[in-house]
Amino acid sequence: MTVLTLGVHIVDVLARPVESIPQGQDTHLLEQIRVTAAGAAAGTAVDLARIGVPVASAGAVGQDELGDLLLTLMERHGVDVRGVVRKAGEQTAASILPIRPDGGRPSFHVPGANLTFATADLDPGQVTGARVVHLGGMDVTWGLHDPVFFEMLGAARQGGTLVTMDLLSNMPDLVQGARAFLPYVDHFLPNEEQALMITGATGVEEAAARLLAEGPAGVLITLGAEGSLVATAAGTVRVPALRAAVVDTTGCGDAYCAGFIAGLLDGREITDAARLGTALAARVAGGLGSDAGLDGLTLDHLGHLAREGVQDPHATEGI
């Protein structure tokens, strides 16, 4: 194991293009429906595995058919799922996402077993034995808001493990709760709304400075079509988005995290690693679901896409 992704696991059912919800018992014919492993831990794990990074995942799913499906999907892509526990009486978290023609993604969501995941469910050896631990969705995994888990992260970092963190929600109370993890995180990767919400800042540069002051060595704020802001003690750098023909933005944040982590493991400095994250996010945006467009993609190919700075030369939209 090189990476452990730890936190939220979700089954996504996606359909496109959806322009409206049918009235009554009417049926609309669509181009595509997919089921994917998603969530800030599971989605990132699948993306890492698909570009060749050894990865395990830890979290909670139900003792139900959706849990069976989620674990099967993850294992099929090469993720070690031995750290995912089954919770009797709980539903596996799931989302239904009707994807609009412009790539927008309203959702219907059941949080399910993610809310029950706790420190006692973890194998400490998985945490301390990983080169990178990615915390995916600490804003909604309340059972990990635990001094024992913080001590576990501290021990892992003392042993040389890097800790990265991404969030799941855009709910003020939940996002604020994730602040407690910042002293134990090396690189924090929120989106713009989350960064502003957690800090109360009026702009992303101010938000990044406030977040750096709480412990991380790097803060990477994703800005959608505007790319991302990379902030360290040395200053801030804007990493531009790549042009892409956007089909669906589901999982782009998870893909950014996966590309960034892969870049760190490859020995790249933080801004160059962020460019890999940008390239992977653009690739995923070109298809349906959180792992779209990754067939046959290698780290070398991803680096080439990042250097070229374009996914689709005919596209005008940035991602």
From TrEMBL:
InterPro entries this protein is in?
PfkB_dom (IPR011611), Ribo/fructo_kinase (IPR002139), Ribokinase-like (IPR029056)
**Which is one GO molecular function term here?**
kinase activity
Q: Which residues form the signal peptide?
A: none
Q: Which Gene3D superfamilies match?
A: 3.40.1190.20
Q: Which Pfam families match?
A: PfkB
SUPFAM superfamilies noted in UniProt: Ribokinase-like (SSF53613)
Sorted keywords for this record are: Kinase, Transferase
First-level EC class? transferase
Look up the EC number in the record and give it. Answer: 2.7.1.-
Protein name from the UniProt record: Carbohydrate kinase family protein
> What is the species listed in this Swiss-Prot or TrEMBL entry?
Sphaerisporangium dianthi
